[in-house]
Amino acid sequence: MLQGQLVPAYGFVNAQAAMTYLQGCVYSGHRLVLNWVKNTSSLGTSSHSTGSPLASSVASPASRSDTCLYSVFVGDLSLEIDDGLLAQAFSQFTSLYDARVIRDPKTQISRGFGFVRFKSEADAMESIVAMSGQWLHGRLIRTCLLMN
Fold first, then answer.
1. Exposed/middle/buried for residue 86 (C-beta within 10 Å: 0-12, 13-18, 19+)
2. Which of 12, 37, 42, 98 is deepest in the core (most CB within 10 A)?
3. pLDDT digits (tens, 9 = 90+) for 57-116
């Protein structure tokens, strides 16, 4: 890959997990409000619906903390790393909010990367510097900030 060029990529997304994870987050200066959409019979129109049984379990932005979360990508993870071990590795940063290892949707085997989120931008930045190149379960991990 040449620096500055975009490379086409794809991924698998669980809609409910994405809604739960992103609901109320700030993106490009706007707070996200995510809802289920139900197609109507006429092409090109849709009606918003919160009637989905899954949608009712998603916290509304008003019920979530107004704190913006800062996400850090963590790559080259050992396959033995789970959410708890990833969180433990970053637990020295007091504003750690959560940690998640990404898994194959069919096999549930780790994809070798994950994300940690912080309430503090300073902790997110410090974690990138402190943790990049550190050994975690026999692997050198790499970190970088995700931009919203």
1. buried
2. 98
3. 334 444 445 568 899 999 999 999 999 999 999 999 999 999 999 999 999 999 999 999
pTM for this structure? Answer: 0.58
| Domain that residue 130 falls in | 70-145
Q: Which residue has the higher pLDDT, 120 or 59?
A: 120
Three-state SS sequence of the chain: CCCCCCCCCCCCCCHHHHHHHHCCCEECCEECCCCEEEECCCCCCEEEECCCCCHHHCCCHHHCCCCCCEEEEEECCCCCCCHHHHHHHCCCCCCEEEEEEEECCCCCCEEEEEEEEECCHHHHHHHHHHHCCCEECCEECEEEECCC
Please report whether residue 121 resides in a domain.
yes
| 107 residue type, one letter | T
